[in-house]
Amino acid sequence: MLMVGVTAVWGSTFVVIQDSVERMPVTGFNAARFTVAALVLIVLRPRAVLALDRGGVVRGVLLGVALAATYVLQSVGLQHTSSTISAFVTGMFVVFTPLIMAVFLRRRLTRWVWAGTGLAVVGLGLLTLRGFAVGFGEAVTLVCAFCLALQIVGTGEWVVGRDPYALVVVQLLTVSVLCGVASVPGGFEVVPPDGAAWAGVLLTGVLATAVAFVVQTWAQIRISATRIAVVMTLEPVFAALVGRLAGDRLTWVQLVGVAVVLAAMYLVELGPSDRAEQHASAAPSGAGPPRPAEGG
Predict the structure, then answer these.
(1) What pTM does this model have?
(2) Which parts of the sequence belong to the EamA domain (predicted)?
(3) CA-CA distances (angstroms) from residue 78 to 29, 49, 57, 119, 273?
(4) What does the mean pLDDT of the chain come to?
(5) Higher pLDDT, 168 or 47
């Protein structure tokens, strides 16, 4: 339920982000947002990073690189495609996540996970698409979705046995630096120009970044990456609902999309638990050690 709350925060701050990036460049906004987030976590636990060994720091940096690539590539893609298409293509991380688990980590995934993943894609399409053509913007955004899936899978693999708080601090610092570098060609405008922009940076930096990523990383100790990915598809659902409250109109097709995404989440949640699947996969099934199962 905490992850549902996180996606609610991400979705509900979409309007705030839209307003902020009209006042300053996207890369500058992200640099400021992640700097605020990292500083907040450091102030609360100044010795947190010391809890990580060298391997933990390296992994935190790698996760930060994947997350920074997600934000930068999405920004590039938005210059060549609409925000609705970007939302759908970015949401394809829900497909890449189980594929990475299956292909690169050789994890067995259940039919519940694949069914939930498929439903989530259909729901995202109904919620966001109004025509679709594959071009440069869509291709770049697809790479963005793959990077986000890498971040989700990497977090699930590397957080076990480590302090999730410390891992997040390193990750956010990395994103802050890389987004700052990405903002240089545009003039390095990383300082919010007015009070409204500052409010956007502080709100998203504290709630939608510092708190949200600590919760996500903590949750991934207990929940598989595939389940996390499906739950995260609720973000555009909450964004649509908040938009409706702000005066946007939702079509019947979009409402069906909302229902389908919710059904996908419940399908995965009602499937066999991660713990049960891991226990079942421990039974001998040929040469070599058994591989843990992931997802529903």
Answers:
(1) 0.81
(2) 2-128, 136-268
(3) 15, 34, 31, 25, 37
(4) 83
(5) 168
Q: Which long-range contacts (CB under 8 A, 24 or more apart) does 116-119 make?
A: 116/230, 116/264, 116/265, 116/267, 116/268, 116/271, 116/296, 117/226, 117/229, 117/230, 117/264, 118/264, 119/260, 119/261, 119/263, 119/264, 119/267
Tens-digit pLDDT profile for residues 35-77: 999 999 999 999 888 888 899 999 999 999 999 999 999 888 8
In angstroms, the CA 83 to CA 85 distance is 6
The Cα–Cα gap between 173 and 56 comes to 14
- Ranges 67-76, 248-257, 263-272, most confident: 67-76
| Residues 6 or more apart in contact with residue 169 via CB below 8 angstroms | 38, 41, 42, 45, 48, 49, 60
Q: Please state the rounded mean pLDDT for residues 81-106.
A: 82
Q: What is the pLDDT of residue 273?
A: 53
User: Distance (Å, rounded) from C-alpha 40 to C-alpha 13?
Assistant: 19
Q: Which two tokens stand for residue 80?
A: 């060549």
